[in-house]
Amino acid sequence: SVCHAVGSVALALSVGSIVLATGWKPYDVTRLANLGAGQVANCISDMQMERLASPHGPTGGTIKRPSDGKAPKNIAFVLCAGSRDQNHLNFCSYICCMASLKQALYLREQYPHAEVTIYYIDLRTPGRYENFRDKVMADDKIHLVKGKVAGLEACGSCDCDDVILEVEDAVKGTKSKRRHDLVVL
């Protein structure tokens, strides 16, 4: 039971639960210069992806590349961008993992032939979210790579506006450069 005062009248309510929402502040991704944030046209933040996917957003819910309005075909998600880094955020917010998995499904629903790669340090999907993670991982066009992205840059060899990522695959023990047409931090 909750007692709440409205003006000079007190209300007693019977409720099943109470949600305390303290809010949050998004990190300024333009501080991640090594990841091209704010500099590389087809490198966007997770909040920008959310706006593109929204039916009330700038594209009416159709996810398009910012540079040319084309449908993305090979998308990368860079998790832990700035997290657990003394120069940026020394903690893990854990919500980014779930948001990226959800957004990967947005892309796959809109573009059935698109390939999605998620680069991560640790995949945080606690408790009941494991079922959702398993659903995403069952999609054969969504690939998860455990490892850090050291940097990214615009493709300099052509006018395609693709993005080149310098990535580490911690499981295979390899470093490589990979090309994507859209990157989400």
Low-confidence stretches: none
> How many H/I helical runs?
3
Main beta sheet: strand number and arrangement?
Answer: 5 strands, parallel
- Give the number of DSSP strands: 10
Average predicted confidence as pLDDT: 84
The SSE string, one letter per element, is: EEEHEHEHEEEEE
Per DSSP, what share of the residues sits in E-state strands of 2 or more residues?
25-35%
**Helix proportion range:** 10-25%
Output the radius of gyration: 19 Å
Oligomer: single chain
- Going by helix content, strand content and strand pairing, the class is alpha/beta
Shape: globular
Strand order of the largest sheet: 3-10-4-5-6
How many angstroms does the end-to-end distance come to?
42 Å
Structure notes:
With 185 residues, the chain is α/β, with parallel strands linked by helices. It is built from 3 helices and 10 strands, in the order βββαβαβαβββββ. The strands form 3 sheets. The protein has a 5-stranded parallel beta sheet with strand order 3-10-4-5-6. A hairpin with a 4-residue loop joins strand 8 and strand 9. The longest helix has 16 residues. The protein is globular. The mean pLDDT is 84.
Keywords:
185 residues; alpha/beta; five-stranded parallel beta sheet; three-stranded antiparallel beta sheet; 3 helices; 18% helix; globular
Any chance you could write out the topology, listing elements then pairs?
Blueprint: E1 2-6, E2 9-13, E3 43-44, H1 46-53, E4 74-78, H2 95-110, E5 115-120, H3 129-137, E6 142-146, E7 149-154, E8 163-169, E9 174-180, E10 182-184
Parallel strand pairs: 3-10, 4-5, 4-10, 5-6
Antiparallel strand pairs: 1-2, 7-8, 8-9
Helix pairs in contact: 1-2, 2-3
